[in-house]
Structure formats: C-alpha cells, structure tokens
Specification:
The complex is a heterodimer of chains A (about 230) and B (about 270). Chain A has helices at about 80-100, 105-120, 165-170, 180-195; strands spanning about 25-30, 30-35, 40-45, 50, 55, 65, 70-75, 125-135, 135-145, 150, 155, 205-210, 210-220. With about 230 residues, chain A is α+β, with helices and mostly antiparallel strands. Chain A has a single domain, classed as Glutamine Phosphoribosylpyrophosphate, subunit 1, domain 1 (4-Layer Sandwich). In chain A, a hairpin with a 6-residue loop joins strand 9 (about 135-145) and strand 10. Chain B is of the alpha+beta class and about 270 residues long. Chain B has a single domain, classed as Glutamine Phosphoribosylpyrophosphate, subunit 1, domain 1 (4-Layer Sandwich). Chain B is about 25% helix and about 30% strand. The interface of A and B includes residues 58, 86 and 204 of A. Chain A: It catalyses: Cleavage of peptide bonds with very broad specificity. Chain A: Its EC number is 3.4.25.1. Chain A: One of its GO terms (molecular function) is threonine-type endopeptidase activity. Chain A: Keywords: Cytoplasm, Hydrolase, Nucleus, Protease, Proteasome, Threonine protease, Zymogen.
C-alpha cells in the first residue's frame, strides 16, 4: 500500500510545493523591491492581496516598519509575514532598550533570517529588508523562500518581479540621486503591475535617509504619475 | 525500396537496436477534457427598456500573466446578436471563426430574407456546448448571448457544461458573484425591465466593470461595451420597418476610481507611520 505524501511534498517524494497555501490562506501575490541610492534606500511595493483570483485587499500596506529606519517588504503568505515582522519588531525594541543604541540593518536582517530559516518548512515568506543608519548608510538584504540571506545593491521579489528582471538589470545604476531612484522603483513596479495579475492597486514607497522615513504613494488612475503626496 | 511501413522514418533495427514501440500502445484511455490556458474573465450584461447592454474587458490572461490587452471578447454575430465570451480564448476563436461565422454565411447565402436572430444563435450554441460536454471535450467557455428577438430584448447564458438560463441581469466569471447582485438592485426581475432607461443600464454596467477591476485579479481597466436597441426605419416606399441597431464603444477606460483613501492606510495592525 502506497503512503500518501505528507505536507507539501509532491508525489515524487522529493520536490516540495513551495507555493502551497493552507486552506483559506491569503496570498500577498506581489511586486516588491528595494534599491540603494546616494544618501539612502527606497522600498517599494504594490497594494494587492489575493485569495486565488479574488482581491481580498486592494490597498494593502506591504511596507512594514520594524524599527525607526529599518523597514521590510513582505511577499508570500500575508499571515506568515505579518507574524515574522511582529516578532522582529519586538526583538529590535528589546535590542534598543538593552544596548542603548538603535540596531543596525544587519542585526535586523539577521533576526529575520533566523526566523525564516529555522521555520522554513512551515513558512511561505519572501522578504526584502532595507534600512538606513548613519554608520553604514543605506543597506538592502533579500531573504527568499529557503531562508538564505543576500546583501544586495537592489532587490526585487514577489510574483510580479519575474517580469522586471530585464527592466531592472537594464535601468539600474550605482549612486543614483533620490529622484532617479524614485523613478527607477516606480517604473519597475508599474511594469510589474502591468503584467502580473496578482499585483496591482497603488504603488507605495518608503524613502529612508538621514531625515528619517518618508512615505510616498502613487495611484493607478493617474498612471502612477504625480508627486507621491 | 523499403516496403515495410514500420521501418519508415526511424533508425534501422540492425544498426541502432530494436525500436521500442511500447509508446504506441497507450495504457490510458484517450483523454480530451482540457484545462483553459489563455482565458478571458467576466462578461456583464443588462436588459433595459428598448434593448440590452453588454460589456467585457480587453484582457486575455495566461494564468496570472496579463498577456494580451487588446482582445475583443464581444463579437457581433449576424445583424441582431452579440456574443460575449469568458473562459478559454482559443475555444472562443474556434466558436466564432469555425462555427458562427460560417453559420451566418450559410444562412445569408440563402438570400431568402430570413436572418438568424439572437434566440437562434443561442439555441445553436447551447446545443453545441452540451454536445461537446457529453463527449467530454468541452468548449471551455461561459457565453452571454445578447440581442433583439421577437420584438423584445434578449439575454441568456450558456456554459461549458451545457447549462443554460435567462434573466434580465447576467454575468459570467467573477461577475456572477460581484456584478449580478449590483445589477439586480436596478433590475430585480423581468417586470422591472420596462422602467430602466438606456442611460441607467449603461451606468449600472460601467459601475460593475469598476467593481470587477477593484476585486478581480484577472481583469483590466480597459473594456468594450455594446448597446443593442431597436429603431424604426423609414424604408424607401414609406413603410416603417423595425431594424436592430448595435452601437459599439471600444477602448473605454474606467472613470472615477476610488484610490485616494489608500494614503491613510498604514500597516496592518499596530503600526502608525
């Protein structure tokens, strides 16, 4: 008698279905990215949360703060990424109190990685962490599904990112100005949203510099032009 | 010359070893029922006093990829009818190019003054769809047939299972859950049709297209709309005859979308910034 494969293991007993959502689970089918520029880092995300082809939330905020100038972009399971972000937020508050200084982006990324790697079988989370501190300036870390950590100059993630690998590779430059970087992120996400059915809505951005964190928003019915509020 | 068909088109047995022909005998039965690949989403339609309005967006999706954004899913069939198709696009094209277009041509060629009307097209499609499902090889579509028939507006639905029904307000795909309740507020039953004006009907359908764009992840903001009405025409001899008029609106972009409120939404729980 054959035993049924358990969990998300497929019939060959080797390959795992990484996209598997639990019953009723909501997916952040998504386009997210973060990019360094001269003076800081920008996080960007769309605002669509789907359950299958139904848009459960069309104005989601996928850019989540875990410390004053350390934020993350969330993709994958909405529940899993919210839980992880909440736990990291707690640990960073504790770090602040115990060490009398704010945590670096590297510390935050490391805590994210510990959670994602140790619980890799249970989790469906693709995260991009971006932060600014005075010592290291802007930094971007990518944590894909398996829980590995990758420090990068810019990172893209989510289902919509597949459509903009070419765009980003062609348009990325070192040491962009803040304005150029905003146009880079906005252009990339607009393209991702255009092709990916699981991405859409408004484009949210957070700009992290020595000034702190500044939010921007761009609307689909204005073709994502506009000053970002 | 080699007389033996088994040897044609393949390497020689004495050079490459005996050919493994086991794949020619299938252990499984012949399977036809497919999965839809390139797909269209909802079609929305509503009857009003004097006609029908029908709308569908211009998107053909490849799974979640918004692959083709210039597709027309509303097609005129003959003089009296519009067929709106959701579901597999290749089956939609087959339906139109290989079934309906030749059908119209054959009927018109008779030149007997008789033209196929909405109810005829509908009946024909219903039977084809049911027949295909009974062979386990469906045309993977849900169709709305809208038109003018027998002095009244005509609107009915037929799908890949051969299920058919008619109502003053209809929609396929996600529209069935999202648009139909909105349309039924305007038009709860057949009796209400005569109190709905053309402007009200078009506004209701356009509002539904907006809601579908908000909530259907496989929709597009660009769509086509067709309004079928009847008008009286003065012929050359001075007689009044009824003629069916089909008005098209193409490349419509959704208006008055509500997104500005998103600026005030921050985080998902405790976050303030």
């Amino acid at each position: 008698m054959e035993s049924k494969p358990t969990g998300n293991l497929s019939i060959d007993g080797i390959h795992v279905d990484m996209e598997h959502l639990k019953k009723g689970e909501v997916n952040l089918g998504t386009s997210i990215m973060a990019a360094l520029f001269d003076g800081g880092v920008i996080l960007g995300a769309d605002s669509r949360t789907t359950t299958g082809a139904y848009i459960a939330n069309r104005i989601t905020d996928k850019l989540t703060q875990v410390h004053d100038t350390i934020w993350c972009c969330r993709s994958g399971s909405a529940a899993d990424t919210q839980a992880i972000a909440d736990i990291v937020h707690y640990y960073l508050q504790l770090y602040n109190v115990q060490n009398h200084e704010p945590p670096t982006t590297e510390v935050a990324a490391s805590i994210f990685q510990e959670l994602c790697y140790s619980n890799k079988d249970q989790l469906s989370a693709g995260l991009i962490i971006a932060g600014y501190d005075a010592r290291h300036k802007g930094e971007v870390y990518s944590i894909p599904l398996g829980g590995s950590l990758h420090k990068q100059r810019y990172a893209i993630g989510g289902s919509g990112s597949t459509y903009i690998y070419g765009y980003c590779d062609a348009n990325w430059k070192e040491n962009m100005t803040e304005g150029e970087c905003i146009e880079f992120v906005k252009g990339a996400l607009a393209e991702a949203v255009k092709w990916d059915g699981s991405s859409g809505g408004v484009i949210r951005m957070v700009v992290l510099t020595e000034r702190g964190a500044e939010r921007k928003i761009f609307f689909p019915d204005e073709d994502y032009k506009g000053n970002g509020q | 010359m080699n007389h033996f068909p088994e040897a044609w088109g393949r390497p020689r047995n004495d050079v490459y070893g005996v050919y493994d022909a086991s794949h020619l005998q299938s252990s499984m039965p012949n399977q036809h029922t497919q999965s839809p690949i390139v797909t269209g989403t909802s079609v929305v339609a509503l009857k009003f006093n004097g006609g029908v309005v029908i709308a569908a967006d211009n998107l053909a999706s490849y799974g979640s990829l918004a692959r083709f954004t210039d597709i027309e899913r509303l097609k005129q069939v003959g003089t009296h009818t519009i067929v709106g198709a959701g579901g597999d696009i290749s089956d939609m094209q087959y339906l139109h190019e290989k079934l309906l277009d030749p059908l119209i041509i054959k009927e018109e060629y008779q030149n007997d003054g008789h033209h196929l009307r909405a109810s005829h097209i509908y009946r024909y499609l219903s039977k084809v769809l049911y027949h295909r499902r009974s062979k386990f090889n469906p045309l993977w579509n849900t169709l709305l047939v809208a038109g003018w028939d027998d002095g009244k507006p005509f609107l009915a639905s037929a799908d890949l299972l051969g299920t058919t029904f008619s109502a003053p307000a209809l929609s396929t795909g996600y529209g069935a859950q999202l648009a139909v309740p909105l349309l039924r507020r305007i038009c709860p039953d057949e009796a209400a049709v005569e109190n709905i004006t053309r402007e009200q009907a078009v506004a209701a359908v356009e509002e539904c297209m907006k809601v579908l764009f908000y909530r259907d992840a496989r929709s597009l903001s660009k769509y086509s709309l067709a309004i079928i009405t009847r008008e009286d025409v003065e012929s050359a001899e001075g007689e009044t005859k009824e003629r069916v008029n089909i008005e098209w609106k193409k490349d419509i972009e959704l208006q008055n979308q509500s997104w500005k409120f998103a600026e005030g939404i921050r985080g998902y729980g405790a976050q303030v910034v």
